Amino acid sequence: MASAPTLPVSSQSSAGGGAASQPQPPIATPAFRAFISRMSSSLRHGFAQRRPWSELIDRSSMSRPETLAEAYSRIRKNFSYFRVNYLTLIAFALAVSLITHPFSLLVLFGLLASWSFLYLFRPSDQPLVLFGRTFADRETLGILVVLTVFVVFLTSVGSLLISALMVGLAIVCAHGSFRVPEDLFLDDQEPSGSGFLSFLGGAAASAAAPAVARV
Predict the structure, then answer these.
(1) Rounded distance, CA 122 to CA 30, Å?
(2) Which of 46, 99, 130, 153 has its CB 3.0 to 4.6 Å from that of 196, i.e. a possible disulfide?
């Protein structure tokens, strides 16, 4: 008597199990791409509004302020006009400080990567598992906050960033107080919340959207 044919159930189940067991990406690619795209477009739009550097360093427009009130008025007007150039100088000072201190640069890069891969852009349906233990989103957030406070305030990284920021601000204030703003057209300027600074709010909102959804 011939035996009944065997149905290929095992092959289908194994194929389904293989598809289900495929590893998920460690980072939410669509959210990460949207963040990078929005930040890059905002940066391009901001840099398009920068003033000519020759106008910034025009020696014929330099003079010493007579009073502190005049210096403050010059700084305020010049920052409104050279906002993008000044922020570029501050960012350059920060970059030079980090490049000349590679250890601090690696620490900050690792901290940024930890926030990106472990919390901000991690898929919400994929729990964080480290050393055989599953961490909830609130536990992950608390660990990252404590790590950030430790790196910024209890190591040399924080003092390095503050020093570079103070150097950049000193350069901006010195130039703003000596640059005579009478020849600058300030009436057609955009509001201070637009232009180059808009990418801060837009990029932060894009990064905070998945984070807020976790809390």
Answers:
(1) 11
(2) 46
pLDDT tens sequence across 5-15: 555 554 444 44
Helix (H) or strand (E) holding 96: helix 83-99
C-alpha 66/C-alpha 83 separation (Å) is 24
**Cβ partners under 8 Å of residue 111, min gap 6:** 147, 148, 151
Dihedral pair phi/psi, residue 62, rounded to 5°: -100, 135
Q: Is 59 helix (H, G, I), strand (E, B) or coil?
A: helix
Average pLDDT, the chain: 76
| Whether residue 197 has pLDDT greater than 80 | no
How many Å apart are CA 160 and CA 156, to the nearest integer?
6
- Bridge partners of 124? none
Q: What DSSP assignment string belongs to 101-161?
A: -HHHHHHHHHHHHHHIIIIISS-TTS-EEETTEEE-HHHHHHHHHHHHHHHHHSSHHHHHH
Distance from CA of residue 9 to its chain's centroid? Answer: 51
